[in-house]
Amino acid sequence: MKTLYYILLFVAALIFSTQFLVTRQYQRRNGTGFLSSVKLSLGAYFTIALFFFIKGCITYKSFNFGFSTFTFLMTLLIAAVSLSCVYMGIRVLAVGDMSIYSVFMMLGSLILPTFVGLVFYHESFGWIKGIAIALMLAAIVFSVTSSGKKVFTPKALICYIGIFIMNGMIGVLFTVHQNHPAQTVAAIANADGSFSVNNDAFMTWYGLSTVLLCGVLYAAVKIYDRLRRAKAGPAVPAPTETPSAEAGAACAASARKISAKEVCLIILLPVLYGLCNGLGDYFIALATQPGALGSSVTFPIINGGTILFSTIWGMILYKEKLRPGTIAALVLVIVSTVLFMFA
Questions:
Q1: Residue 235 lies in a domain
Q2: Which keywords does UniProt give here (predicted)?
Q3: Which of 306, 312, 241 is closest to 10 using CA atoms?
């Protein structure tokens, strides 16, 4: 059975690496601003909620397949932390170094959930797992710090430490929910009278919670922007030449052409992002539930696999060349992953 969980984690890593490609395409068309990211999250997590709601209804043959106040509050907290990570990612572009930021982001998602799993949920720890974790940590550092000037200003350090904690907390919250007494979470009753975590319900509430927060956040930003504009007064337009009727018609036709060409991608990219993120998180939820692999194996493999597949995508799609640091990282990822499977 554990072999299946390993396969799911590798699939999740592949999905997450694909998600980064989708994000890059979305940002090329819609920019990298905060509102653009919120709109992407809004569409993506609505897709997640709808997909897992339909999946749960089909699986359990019911529209009432699980609710728990604890599950809802946990998913709301995960959503808030996830959106904070989005803000940090945009903020670091102005004050810090993206490669160092990526190191802290991945280290947080590896170290904190692993620590919680080992200390609070008594997951097994031997010398093989210890070596595997150390190699994976080294792989993360090698993969993103092999070139470029690094920025360590006070504002940048705040972003680095912030993303370390917040991105790590996402994995911690997943772990806490999946290992909480099943009677207190959105659960299903088994034939022997025991309960199991209902992962479809968990993912549905996760999607809805994020949509709720994104909607509130988007509305708040738009209202604030409108009030700020009203207080500043109407802008004085710059003098321009009056375009001819022919030029105006040409511009309108061009705008219609661009709009028609891009509209499918504008709709498709958030949906695709949501499916990638949702399925990846769902496989993590399966791997961290009681009796599965645990956090101390799940999150290192996810991080290492994402590095591996992202590098492969970069070579295939963007003709990126392998630097010595990247080669070292890939070797460490492969060795570490093999060790985890025998830990």
A1: no
A2: Membrane, Transmembrane, Transmembrane helix
A3: 306
